[in-house]
Amino acid sequence: MKKISSGRSFIPDGYYEPLPDLGEKGYFLKLLAPDVYFFTTGVYNTMFITTSKGVVVIDPIQGKGPLLKKAIREVTEKIPKYMIYSHAHLDHIGDAHLFAGEAQIIAHIETRKLLERYKDPHRPIPQISFGKNYSLSLGGTQIDLIYPGEGHGKGNIMIHLPRQKVLMVVDVATPRSVPFLNFATIDIYSQIKGIEQALNLNFDVYVAGHLHRPGTKKEMLEVLKYYLASKRANKAALKKISFLDVKARSRTQDPERLFGEYYQAVSRECFRMLKKKWKPRLMGFEAFTRGHCDVWTSFHRTEVAPE
Ligand SMILES: [Zn+2]
Questions:
Q1: Cα of 89 to ligand 1 centre, how many Å?
Q2: Ligand 1 centre and the CA of 74: distance in Å?
Q3: What is the pLDDT of residues 224-253, one digit of tens each?
Q4: Could you tell me whether strands 36-40 and 45-51 are parallel, antiparallel, or unpaired per DSSP bridges?
């Protein structure tokens, strides 16, 4: 069938990977290593592991639980024995209630505390929780749960399969993408340290929580480099843009607004410095990079952090 053009012209986006057509099924399933399955519905992704003693489900994405169940049945008759929450956020674990009857839930203690606070029937409270690390073994498969500290949110853990060299780390480093709005962080310094810790683990592919495909270690490193480049660019822009120059040009008499104009000028300069290198490399540059520059402005106002 001939496609009818809508006549809409698109703006230059730099690098991007268009959303693939998921077909009638509505999801993709990909084998990452023996018994380790990557599941995606395009924008969101997760994984599950099949063993002789049952299935380990991770992050039943909100609204996609029935598809995840279908995908599991596609490859095994075993039932979910455990369910791991990467973190407490509704969009990633909002369909947990569909698996809760049959599976024991495992999460970080901070995730448990948050879920106890929210009392959301769609996100049942974990039966098993831990502080620093936890190692789960089922049917000969070892799954290490590691807490790198809060970054994206309290209780956000890394899920590592050392033998299969697979890692899952959600919402901090989507492959070939700049980080989400304002880095989607509660602690940017800790978030970067967490990614560095992830890169020290032994893995070939990783599941990021988002994107229609898994990422490679090289792609995670590239995102980390962007984090650090944006920090450096902000520092350089703060040095370059003079508050007195902005003040001399300003037409406002509101001192708070004047500060806002100064930081906007810093943000514009930081964005300009990053554009040439990063827009052709990572998705979301035009949408999110100014926000990243602003986060670093706030950070540099109050912190002197190591490079
Ligand atoms: Zn999240």
A1: 5
A2: 28
A3: 999 999 999 999 999 999 999 999 999 999
A4: antiparallel
The answer to whether 59 touches 170, Cβ cutoff 8 Å, is yes
Task: Say how many Å lie between the CA of residue 188 and the centre of ligand 1.
Answer: 14
Instruction: Provide the β-strand partners of residue 134.
Output: 145
pTM of the predicted model as reported, rounded to 2 decimal places:
0.95
Confidence of residue 306 (pLDDT cuts 50, 70, 90): low
Nearest residue to 50 (alpha-carbon basis) of 29, 70, 79, 25? 79
**47 forms bridges with which residues in the sheet?**
38
**Dihedral sign (CA 212, 214, 216, 221):** positive
CA distance linking residue 163 with residue 165, whole number of Å: 6
Alpha carbon distance 161, 284 (integer Å): 30
DSSP states of 30-41 as a string?
A: EEEETTEEEEE-
Q: Which two tokens stand for residue 293?
A: 């520059």
Cα 184 to ligand 1 centroid, rounded to whole Å: 8
